[in-house]
Amino acid sequence: MSDQDRGDRGRRRPRRRGGGPNTGNRKIDRETYEAEYQSSKPTIILAKPAALDSGGGVLSTSPSSTSSAKPDKPVVMAIRSRDESFSSGSPSVSTGEPTPSQVSSSSHRTPVGLVQTDGSNRLSAPPEMNQGVKIVDESHQWSDAGMEVLLDQTDFFVVGVLGLQGSGKSTILSLLAGNNPSDNIRQYIFPPQSKESKELSEHQTTGINMYVTGERTIFLDTQPIMSPSVLDKIIRQEKKIPPEYSTAENCVEMQSLHQAAFLMSVCHIILVVQDWFTDINLIRFLQTAEMLKPSTPSSSHDSSSGSEETNDYYPRVVFVQNKCTRDHFSRETHKAMLSTFSKMLDTSKLKLKGEVSMARGNLVSGLPKHHQSDVNLYLFPNMENKKDSQDTILTLLPEYRGYPSVTTLVNGLRKQVYSMPKDTLTHTTLSEKNWFHYAARTWEAVKKSQLMAEYNRLLH
Q: From CA 188, how far away is CA 174, in angstroms rounded?
């Protein structure tokens, strides 16, 4: 035997002590294979939650992944299960090679699913709105600017407002949408009438503005109906009147009817705000708008059975008496208001009764118990007569008003309005985006309605 053969036998002898001549060879092959496999094929890593960048995307905190990230590789987002060590559930992104710490930390995690995206956070809701967006401009043309703030979900609520000029529509709607009475009027969601506008007797809101809250409540603030300021602006600026209207007065009245009929078709609740009790012309205007309201689209099954009239949609209406004095909150005056509204609107198909009342929640003591036959009536005091000066010690004492504070009344209105039933606008359930398309079609249908054209002809 040669010296080379003796050296080979000596080197193989320790491996036989380890459990066989081929055990070491298999171990070397497995390690080599795993190393080559890990180096040739990248692995998707479920890393720890990473911080969000300024654009809303998720950034990887792994040094190796950030150094080897390539722009042409797809970004993979992992949604984790609830039994993991973190509770936020924030997805993380990794586009590079794994590190040993990442492999060991992610080996016990079970992914729920993977969603491939281009880097944008598609699971986040639209940004919260700071002010309303205009969906009908000053020329009464529809705008699609509000589409981007709506979601594709069906749990939403639409509240609109109607009223004369200076009655406080924007103020009441802003308080209902989330503002507090102590806020500056410049911070209101719907800007109320400014001091300059009051001095010039001008209106503040033009067209229709929309605001969506985080609870998915859609508020619609409208231009004042039958406004003398709108008429004066048309005459003074010599705006061209559409050819279908003979005079500027008819144009203003028909535009107001368009807004009222539109709200009666697309809103769950309409607030009718007035600052003195009561204008008989406002009641007649509501009855006219109800008569000219377009029919609710029905399914083919309903149309074949001839039941369009029974399935026609009518919203719930709440009368808000703004700028009330102490006498309005008395038992006798409140009872007289309910009786007057009930007699004037006895033949109306609008849902006027049994939902909102000052007698609920013990807002005002002494009022009779609320009945289902009572008209929806809510009272607000004059918020402009606040006692701000503190000249003497008497001004620091609470003032007897005869009614609750404005904050208490605002909270009471919010609770009662938000708890009102939500009826279906059409024969099918609409999402927010579908409602927006339905509202656009309704606006065009109202403007081109044959009933509206016939009523306009009778006004000549």
A: 6
Can you read off the two tokens belonging to residue 215? 């609870």
Ranked by mean pLDDT, the top range of 15-24, 91-100, 330-339, 388-397 is 330-339
Contact 223, 186 (CB under 8 A): no
The model scores a pTM over 0.85: no
Token couple for 348: 């109306």
Select the more confidently predicted residue: 47 or 116.
Answer: 47
User: What are 152-157's contacts with CB under 8 Å, separation 24+?
Assistant: 152/431, 152/432, 152/433, 153/216, 153/431, 153/432, 154/429, 154/430, 154/431, 154/432, 155/216, 156/216, 156/217, 156/218, 156/431, 156/432, 156/435, 157/216, 157/217, 157/218, 157/268, 157/269, 157/418, 157/422
84-99 residues labelled b (16+ CB within 10 A) or e (exposed)? beeeeeebbbbbbbbb
Q: Describe the crossing of helices 248-266 and 432-447 by its angle, rounded to 10 degrees.
A: 150
Taking only the tens place, the pLDDT of each residue in 377-405 is: 999 998 875 544 444 555 555 566 778 88
